[in-house]
Structures are given as structure tokens and as C-alpha cells.
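Re: your question from the hallway

Yes, I did run it. Sequences:
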Amino acid sequence: MPFIPHTDQDVSEMLGVIGAPSIEALFDEIPAALRVASLDDVPAGLNELEVMQLMQARARQDGRPLCFIGAGAYEHHIPAAVWSTISRGEFYSSYTPYQAEASQGTLQSIYEYQSMMASLTGMEVCNASLYDGATALAEAVLMAVRVNRRSRSARILLPANLHPHYRAVALTTAGNQGVKFELLPYEPGQGHTARETLAAFAGQDITALVIEQPNFFGVFEDVDGLTDFAHAQGALVIAVVNPTSLALLKPPGAWGEKGANIVVGDGQPLGCPLSSGGPYFGIMSTRMEHVRQMPGRLVGRTIDLDGRPGFTLTLQAREQHIRRAKATSNICTNQGLLMLAGTVYLALLGAEGLERVAALSMQRTEQLARVLTSIPGVRRLFARAGFHEIVIGLDRPAAPVLAALSARGIEGGLDLADYYPELGPAVLVCATETKTLADIDSYGRALNEVLRAARAA
Amino acid sequence: MREKLIFEYSRPGRGARAQWPAASTPNVPAALRRQRPPQLPEVSELDVVRHYTRLSQLNFSIDTHFYPLGSCTMKYNPKACNAAALLPEFAGRHPLGSVAAGQGFLACLFELQEMLKAVTGMRAVALSPLAGAHGEFAGVAMMRAYHRSRGQLLRNEVIVPQAAHGTNPATASMCGCVAREVAVGPDGDVDLDALRAAVGPATAGIMLTNPSTLGVFERRIEEVARIVHAAGGLLYYDGANLNAILGKVRPGDMAFDAIHMNLHKTFSTPHGGGGPGAGAVGVSARLQPFLPVPIVARDSGAGEAAGSQYRWLTERDLPQSIGRLASFAGNAGVLLRAYVYMRMLGRDGMRRVGEYATLNANYLAKLLTQIGYEAAYPQRRASHEFIVTLRRQAQELGVTAMDVAKRLLDLGFHAPTTYFPQLISECLLIEPTETESKQTLDAFAAAMAQILREAEQEPEQLKRAPHTLPVRRLDDVRAAREPDLIYKSVAG
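Structure:
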């Protein structure tokens, strides 16, 4: 039987020991009226060859388009050693490391991750991962409400140029707990959140300000000014970051006079395949003074009975399996294996390798911007400098253009029509180090032809 | 057997250059530039591979050890599931990629939704929750949204049995509800009088695991459902123990309104040392409008051969949706693994899961009681898991459930779940799963018999177990009092 090792003889011996006439008899406590009659809607089983043929056919159907979409998930080169190492059964098929003595490999790798990520974000402590970037922000909002005891308002300022899905998840998650969100507009033509747009909030009770760097448009924010403004109002600062960018950019711990209070982001760029949206991992780091309000698991280094160093889950009094209704979050299973991918990735790249990834991605995006904006009917919508994404404006609706590109095997970017209708026809595009100049040129040629054909039509 | 920290292998100038892209000079405004590089190791590719391979070897895992961890369903994770999910087209697909270039992927997700509906008896399924607790959040948030839509703004109490998973009350709190515990009777079933007394106009619903965390089937589930529904509340099914009844009983037929399924338990996707999971949710008709988005839909009734088109349903299609729960559409790679697993099992395999998981649990329970362990509910059938208690040994010999668990590690078995549920003192919650052979269960029982002998003959040795692992018992108090959570190099 597939994945069940029992022989007929095993079964009869086991039933003999139990003293039951049949396997069916083991279900005799279940009311008869509730028993399943049939599972006809589930297809019959396939063997491994058949299922792989099916999956390969479906994969071929989707193909491998040349992808210029970013918007929170980025195609970077993943060194071969990352997945060959983490796919080892000892990592892949192990459980959450509650039995520390039998889980030192996982525990030590989490400690190493916490150390690397704390340093990358410029913070003092980092947890063992949350689900993804959006849920990490939602948890950070709830954490900020707990941490900022001087604020009674539970008011959170969210910039309009924050990733719209992050905003949506924060609403879904924190809305049930009475958190109030207010939207900060961005500067038209520039794309960043200007200090002046915040002025209306001066002197008010604000629990936290969210700052995304680079923001959803790929544009750089004035993080020092925004951070200092928030702290002057008694608000905390929640930083939303792309970990790759931090090899080049000032880490949130160094923003403004005092630095951000909580840092979140999506770890996907660090060794996780795009994989249609997951599994990725959520980053959260903070200052030691806030650690007892942080959700998620933490690993600490300690000693064993013989005085030798070892690693264990610690400060668990924050977590649901101990505190139940009073826990900092209900999170249990997180994204351990992906966090491990990120750890191995960071070890392989190091500070210099990661900086090269960030720098080359920036350069490729600039090259992409030059090629695309040289096409009639295409312009850059925001003048301000940014990281590895830009917003381009088109002279006609984006959806048919993107569909025509898709038919040519190019995913040309994210249509912003639903998210930011005020921008007119606009597309968020991204190029990382994985895109060659030839790739960029073929995108340019294809877009030029598509637009020309549309004008002729 | 200590393995150094990766930082201790670091030497200036040693970085793994073959993995670096070409150098370039970016134009970052000076005020935004990082001043000091992050403290990442400078190590060779071989350093990295050897270090993490050695770390892996310090772990127990399903691939290396029997892992009878109650409530966690540590069954074998078939390799084909991983291979299929990592096909380059699936691994490389962008979450916001066009639907036209994602029909193969979306077909898998749609069929996964359909199969999950079939095995749970629910009306509709959404796949985006990223883990079990995340699915619980979706479920309770939907219950609240349902009550609100009917103007019942005061329904904010969530009833949980005493023995519930910690995530249940924690989820109630996250949804702005109050958790209210009800007692469990001596036979392991919910105390119906206590339940009748607990429900009322403030009841949002009840969260139940069935079979319960006590390893027994809630026999009066139909009466529980009647009581809660009559009071205007809804029923939430915690799918942590779905493995026990797969193919035998369906939560929908037990009148549950919302359910989450731990795909990393019942549908055998790997636990990865603490995730990723996937916590798909299913609902009855009355909660369908509130499902989280996105969901995969199929247009045209003509079937696949006639060229069905799959697409995402969003807030526009489901205006009453509780909204979006994750950055994108869920842990797609995990969903693909679960899909492949379900296709390999097929309808007959589904039924066998529940049957052989239950056979293994009842067999192992019998073996352990025969050698002298005390079952917590000897008068009941075990479901896919069961509880033994060491309360007698703790009293007479000073040997605890923790000692037994640690000694099992020495003997080559992962420990069962200990001290959960808290209702039973000195307990071990044991779940063998259907993928383990009789011979493995016999070997485990022999190890448990040896430990009982040691408890009587040399309890002091037992209390200091484990003796053969990379580390011995760790000082958790020190870890919490003097938190050492990140590595600080000599250089600072």
C-alpha cells in the first residue's frame, strides 16, 4: 500500500494483540450515522511515475517566462549549495526543536540566523521567523500597541506607498483588535512620503509610524527625518525592509537619532524560490528592551549539565503553548526551513557578496529604465532615486499591453491600475542581477512592438 | 561533538566568490548609505556545506528516526512531493505572474481545493493561511464576520475545552474574542452540562479538536453541535487530528461550520524544523461569503478537456471576505506538495490513512499497557494517538515523563509530546502515524520496557538522561535569565 508498510500478517497479529476483530472495529465509538459513505470526488491514486508525468505536463504548460515583476518577491540567483544543504532529511523532515538535545542542528542554525539578521538590520535581537513579510508587519503593529504604553490611541500611520498587500493583511489581522489605521499620502511625481505630509499629525497620540524602505514604488524614503518625527511624537517606528537592500542601505537600527523600534520584512530574496508566493519567511528584529513583547520563537545559547555550550528555545513565556490566551501571538509553526535557506544564503554571500547582489540589481534596473523610457509612449513616473524597482507610465491601459507581452513569454511587470488608479496606466517593473543586458533589450524590443501594434490598431 | 559557529570559521578575504555576481558601483545617496558592513561570516563554499551538513547530523528527523510526537503527525514525507514542487517552472513562477502563464499551477490548486472539500465534507475551501494557527485565525475571524453581518456585535466568546491546543485560546484573543474554557468529563468527552451552562447570547462559537487532544473521539459531537447551534454559536474544527479520521468521518457531516487543515500533518508536507506549514480552511455554506482571498475558481462547466480557465477570486468577487491573510496566495510550494501526496494516495489511500494510523495507535497503546504503563483512558478506544501517564512512577520512584522522554532519545527514538495536555499529570502523548511498521512499534515498545526497568533499578541514571546526545540537559533557567540571543564577536 502506498506509504503504509503493513503486511496482511502484521495486521492480523496487531489486531490479535488489540483484541479487535477488524480495523473497522476500532472505529466503533464513532456514531454510525456519521461514517463516510464514499469519497467518490477524490480521484483514484496515481503511482509516482504517473504523478510526475502529470506535474511535468502542468509545469510545461506554464513555461518559464522572462520575469520583470518584483512587488515584494524577487528573482535572485540561489547558489546550488543552499537547497542541496537544506533539503537534507535531517533538516527537511525534523520537527520544531522542542527536544533540544535532539535538535541542536536546527537550534544552532536559528541562533546563527538571529545573529546575522540582527546585524543586517542593525538591531539587538531577531526571532526565528514569522510567516512572511505581510504577516510580520501585522504582528509588528500588534506588538507596537503592546510596547507603546504611553499611547492610548492604537493609531497606526501607514504610508499609501506601502505594499498594498501588506496594508491589507495588517487590516485583516489587527482590525479585530481595535487597531486604527490612517493612510499617509505620497508626494505626486516623487513617490516618497514627505515630512510635510506628516505635519498634520504633530502633537497627536500616535502609536506607531510604518516606514517602508525602499517603498512599494522602489523609491527611497527620507528615513532619518521620518524616524525622528515619529519619535518626537512619542510614536514607535516600524521599519519594513528588503533584506538584500540592507547590504547597501543604512540599517533601520541607525535611522535617525534613535533608530527604528521594530524591523520587519520578507526574507524571500535570501535563497527562497519565487514559487508562486511561498513558502517565504517573515523577518522580525527589535531592541532588547522590547523582546518580551516580541512574537515567535527565540533561541538562546546556554550550557548543559556538563557545562558545555548548547542551544535551546527560550523566553517561551511569550508563546501560545505556555501563555495560551495571554500569548503575544497565536503563531506556532513558522517558516523554519526557509529561514535556514536564508541563513545558508547569507553565509555563502557574506557582506560583500550581498552588497554585489544589491548593487548589480540596482544597476540592472537603471539599465531597464533607460531602455524602456526610450520607447515612445513610455515614461518614468517618479523622479526620486530608488532601489531595484521603478514605476513606468504608459500612454494606454496597461492590462492589454502586459497580456501581449505575456503571450511573447515576458512577464512585463505589475499593473498598478487596481492599486493606484490615480497614477493612470502604470506598471511596476523590476530587474535583479539575474537579468542580462540581452534580457533587458528583448523586453525593450517586445514592448516597443506591442505599443506600436496597439497604436496602429 | 560540538560544531563551531559559522562565524568562527570566518577569515577576512575568504568569501565564496563563485556565488557572487559581478561588481558594480551603485548610485546610492550618501545619507542613505550603510556605514559599516553587516557582521556576516567570510567563509568558503566548502566551509558552508560542511558546517550545515554537520549541523544537520545533530538533528533527529523522520528520515532518520521514529518520531511519535503526539498531535504533530510526524509521518513520512514522500520525496516525489518535493521533487514535483521544485520543478523549475513551479519554483520560478512569480506570485503576481499572469494567469495565462499559470494555468497548470492554478489547476493543481483548484483540484486541491476540490479534494479537500471532498475529504472534509465542507462547502468551500481557501488555501491561503500559512500554518495551522493562521487557519484558526481565519476561522474565528470568519465566525466574527458572520455574526457581525447579522448585527450580532456582542458575540465575542469562544468556548474551548480544557484540553485544547494553546493556539485555540491564543487565536480567540487575536480575533478580539474572549476564550472561555469548558470542562472535560472523566471519560474524555466534553461535559455537556458545563457546555449548556457556558453557551448564551455572547457565544461566538466553540473550537473543538475531534478526536480530541486526549486521543479519544468526542462521541456526543452531534449533541455538542445542537447545543452550540441552538445558542446561535458556530462550530470550529481544529484539524490538528484530522489524520485519525481521514476517510472515515468528515467534519462537515459532524456539522462544523469552519475547519482548518494542517497540510503539514495530515497531507504529509515536511515540517522543516518548524515550518513551513499550510493551514487551508474549509467552511459550511453560511460562512462561504467570508472566506479569505484569494481563492482559485474555474470558469466554464465544460471540464478540463474543453479548455477550462482558472483564475483568482479576490475581494471584488467576495465583497464580504475577511480579506487577505498573506503577502500572496499562500505557501504555494507546500500546497503543491500536498496536492501530489493526495493524488498518489487517491480515494482508497485517504481511507487507509485513518485506518492504519488508528491501528498503529491502538496496537502501541496495548503493548505499552501490557508492559506496565498506565493509559489515561483505558476504557476508551485510542484514536490515532493516546496518552500514558507516569503519575505512579513519579510518586513512587521520582521518575517523570520528562525523564522517560530524554532516555528515549538515548535509545534512538524521538520523544513523544510531554506534559500536554496539561489535564493529565506526567503524561506522554504518543502518535505513531500510519507510515511506521509493526517492527518499529515493537522496537519502540521494547525501549519503553527497558526504561521502566531502569526506573526501578537505576532511577538516578534515568534522571540524568540523555547520555549519548550532542549535549546533555540544558540550563533553561540560565538561558532565560541571561539571554544570549546573538553572537557577538571579539571584534564587536
